[in-house]
Design brief:
131 residues; 5 helices; 70% helix; flat
């Protein structure tokens, strides 16, 4: 029951984040779909974590080089996702209001991804490997 409630809450927050992203693109005042390329960052964000989880089998170690490298790459992906709409706004490819909506969507989506790994990444009865 608790895992189902967490999954529903994460789904709801993911939908809110994607709504902010779509509003930044689809509102008639903005009308440019360049910020949709941020979706690529959403999809590649968890990949370093998955690779590090698969490669490093020593879960009792406090830190490993592979896990630290995965954190580094994930941080670079997240920073790039926040920087992309700012650069688009600076070169006037999108308006600053659209940039703000995309940044708000980024914050919600990345917090949702973090929440997913915090809730389902412990290796309990319910884990992300089941999904």
């Amino acid at each position: 029951p608790c895992a189902v409630a967490a999954l529903v809450g994460l789904s709801f927050s993911g939908a809110i984040g994607l709504t902010f992203l779509m509003l930044g693109c689809a509102l008639e005042y903005y009308g440019v779909y360049w910020p949709m390329f941020v979706l690529i960052f959403y999809f590649i964000c968890p990949i370093p974590h998955f690779i590090a989880k698969r490669v490093s089998d020593d879960s009792d170690a406090a830190s490993s080089a592979c896990r630290e490298l995965a954190y580094f790459f994930t941080t670079g992906i997240v920073v790039s996702a926040f920087g992309f709409p700012i650069i688009l706004a600076r070169v006037e490819a999108i308006k600053w209001g659209a940039c703000g909506l995309v940044l708000a969507g980024n914050a919600v989506i990345f917090l949702t991804i973090l929440g997913f790994f915090l809730v389902f990444g412990r290796g309990d009865d319910f884990s992300w490997e089941q999904w």
